[in-house]
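Hello,

Our lab assistant flagged a job as stuck in the queue for most of the afternoon. It eventually completed. Since we weren't sure the result was trustworthy after the delay, we are filing this so someone can double-check. Below is the sequence as submitted and the structure that was eventually returned. Let us know if re-running is recommended.
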Amino acid sequence: LIGYLSVSLSLSLSLSLVFLELYSDRIMPVVSVSRNSLFKRLGKVYSEEEFYDLCFEFGIELDDVDPIEGVEDDVTYKIEIGANRYDLLCLEGLARALRIFIGAEKKLPNYVARAPQHPHTMVVKPSVLGVRGVVVCAVLRHITFTEESYKSFIDLQEKLHQNICRKRTLVSIGTHDLDSISGPFSYSALPPKEISFAPLNTTTVMDGESLMKHLDKDLHLRPFLPIIRDKPTYPVIYDSNGVVLSLPPIINGDHSKITLNTKNVFIEVTATDRTKALIVLDTMVTMFGEYTAVPFEVEQVAVVDEITGITTLTPDYTPRIVSTPLSYLDSAIGVKITKEKVQEYLRRMCLPSKLEDSPSGIVVNVEVPPTRSDVLHACDVMEDVAIGYGFNKILDISAPPRTLTVGSQQPINKLTDQLRNEIAQAGFTEVLTLSLCSTEENYDLIGKVDDGLAVRIANPKTLEYQVGRTSLYVGLLKTLQHNKQAAVPIKLFEISDVLLKSDAYDVGARNKRQLCAVYMNTDAGFEFIHGLLDRVMLLLEIPYTPHGAGGYTIKEASPDDKTFFPGRCAEVIVRGTKVGVIGTLHPLVVENFDLQFPVSALHLDVELLL
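-- returned structure --
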């Protein structure tokens, strides 16, 4: 059995928090809707079993049915939807999508973003750049709310805040009665003492510091306070008269709150990420655009960035095209689909499309509507075509495979498992470390020059996780760092993937399997690492040859490699190709990870050993 080194409490806790967060993000959203309201919109009454089957066909699930207290002839349907289908997070979007899917609605909604002659303006001040630098806006004109639609309007904001907005850390939404405020509007960051307004549902005017103390008693809003509480300035939106609309991402002002009588709604979305901000804004206005005087028409707002001087109209409904060869849809789904039918199946999924002839065959061009931010790739189009066609029909019609095959391990995985077993038997302990690290750790701390191959996270949550690792050194050295109290010698290894940019792949990056082993003792112990290299080559039946022509050899590496001590580093050559490096780590690298003893390391490209 491979033993795993027990890391320190602090490292274990940080890893647990990371995995907990990753797990929590995977929980599927559940939408609660009135059965009677939903069936009224669908124009048909279903039994519970019939509706369960409809949900299954559409790719969602009827999760639970709860009674409504005091109401005998209605129940609440709890429907589980995909985490990326933000258009299904409310009754309006869910009913609209199902009506089109079952054929009750023949015409797809026509979403229009209209620019008035004199649009409202939101001016973005330079002060917000380091706090929450993105804002996008829209106006819903002549909207009519009922108690049900008003509640749904509020509920959708909460669901978006919990989902794509990541509990308001990335995006937050503010909605206001446009008739109670006057533009142009400004978005800036001010010291807490300079911000003064009455927060939502109160008449008491408070400054920023007093507001934080007041909201610390609010169980609903208290979790969001740490997002800005310790910052020197708070983001704030106010109108031309100095009336505060909101303090993003915490709370709106009471002056501009919307009610059932509100006719014109001003929506502002602040964020750290522009793409997510636009998705949230599009979702809000397209879901409730059906209640405006001209259905699905939204008024654009001019967002003026004082830093760049650029003015942008939001929202922008310019069609985004995703092209998919019809042949790909046929082969991926396993059913021959005609060009006439493919458009029908896509229309059932609210995706308008056009066909185009090309030298390689028919191409389906999908005009992605603002409601479907989840459609990014040809595989997303294929999935919707399969749902529109019907998964159950695929099983009935698709032909069985013409050839019989036997499943087996991929060669690289089989070799990896064999190496793990043999290296563990050689006395080394396997560790599994995170594939994300900081840019400094990936390059500077191990003496590497930034080669531009690291896959970078666009909006890292912490400085500790900025890039995908390009080597395995960092994880092993951090493990040694957190286990300095352990008795030496310590012998560790890891066989895992690293991430490298590559134009040869449609995602712009690739995984690469590598092996790294380290030995730490009162002396460098290079002979132990060299012995491990010899053992690996012996197992792979690669003989040692002086020049590495028909086997393997080692030759002195370039002194430019600052990871290793000069003169104590060698390249591993197999059949004339460099497959790795072996040597004693440079004292500066050892010092960077606060290690007390010298370390020797072996780093191999496993894929080149196949």
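-- support follow-up --
The delay was a queue issue, not a problem with the job. The result is valid. The two ends are 25 Å apart (CA to CA). Residues 556 and 570 are 4 Å apart (CA to CA).
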